[in-house]
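Q: What residues go here?
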């Protein structure tokens, strides 16, 4: 299981981004990892008008952003005793984030949820494939202000190549807490024999998976529409984190998030961690 040694958290200084920074800081403290705080300023934001000389205006905005980064890093140090590497870039957010994550070989990228200007919208919207093509690292989408480490972690698996990575990351996030592993079968219409056969196969695959993992898990097989069943199970077990493969249909739709991953990430009421195969 890969050690969590370097975390990059993207911020636009919004309230949701602050929640992501707090979660990233808690994880960095928990795992003894480096924490990199990254802000990407759009080139258009540097020169919004002609009221002042553009170069001076751009320098002022960069300096203001740098000051906010320093303040955020100071709060992280005070509250979590975690030192922060401050990083500032100019350009398109998905490009600069991906470049920096690859540059420092980060193990995890953390981002918050908000409206059209959020990093999440870049991942789930029309530019999703661009970020995912340059950033193959696990991405943690933070939805709430964290109160402490994760306590209830749900790993949603499909028995494709990223399944073991999903379980390992779930365990990494859960620490000493148990991990629940869920596989959801899409039912075959009016073919009970086929459904029963699929349940048997899935049960065997789940048993094999659990026996191969070096830690205890609680396995369950569900039947229904996968995104709905995953979300219902997460609600039932009070999950504060769902971990699943980035391409939910076994790697199909390679230029976008898989449909299951996308639906769960958009609708979940808890944090979601998207991973690829190791």
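A:
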């Amino acid at each position: 299981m890969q050690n969590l040694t370097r975390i990059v958290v993207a911020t636009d200084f919004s309230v949701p981004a602050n929640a992501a920074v707090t979660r990233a800081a808690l994880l960095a403290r928990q795992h003894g990892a480096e924490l990199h705080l990254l802000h990407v300023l759009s080139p258009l934001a540097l020169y919004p008008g002609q009221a002042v000389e553009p170069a001076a205006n751009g320098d002022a905005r960069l300096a203001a952003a740098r000051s906010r980064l320093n303040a955020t890093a100071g709060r992280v140090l005070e509250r979590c005793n975690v030192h922060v590497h401050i990083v500032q870039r100019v350009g398109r957010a998905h490009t600069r984030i991906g470049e920096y994550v690859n540059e420092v070989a980060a193990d995890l990228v953390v981002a918050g949820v908000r409206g059209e200007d959020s990093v999440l919208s870049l991942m789930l919207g029309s530019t999703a494939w661009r970020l995912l093509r340059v950033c193959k690292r696990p991405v943690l989408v933070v939805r709430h202000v964290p109160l402490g480490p994760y306590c209830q972690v749900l790993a949603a698996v499909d028995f494709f190549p990223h399944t073991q990575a999903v379980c390992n990351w779930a365990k990494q996030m859960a620490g000493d807490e148990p991990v629940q592993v869920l596989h959801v079968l899409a039912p075959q219409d009016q073919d009970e024999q086929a459904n029963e056969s699929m349940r048997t196969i899935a049960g065997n695959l789940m048993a094999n998976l659990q026996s191969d993992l070096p830690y205890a898990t609680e396995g369950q097989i569900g039947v229904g529409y996968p995104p709905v069943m995953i979300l219902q199970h997460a609600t039932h077990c009070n999950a504060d984190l769902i971990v699943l493969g980035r391409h939910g249909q076994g790697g199909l739709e390679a230029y976008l998030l898989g449909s299951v991953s996308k639906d769960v990430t958009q609708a979940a009421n808890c944090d979601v961690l998207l991973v690829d195969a190791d």
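A: Context that may help when evaluating the design: The two ends are 9 Å apart (CA to CA). Strands lie at 6-10, 34-41, 84-90, 108-112, 139-142, 153-156, 179-185, 217-223, 241-245, 271-275.
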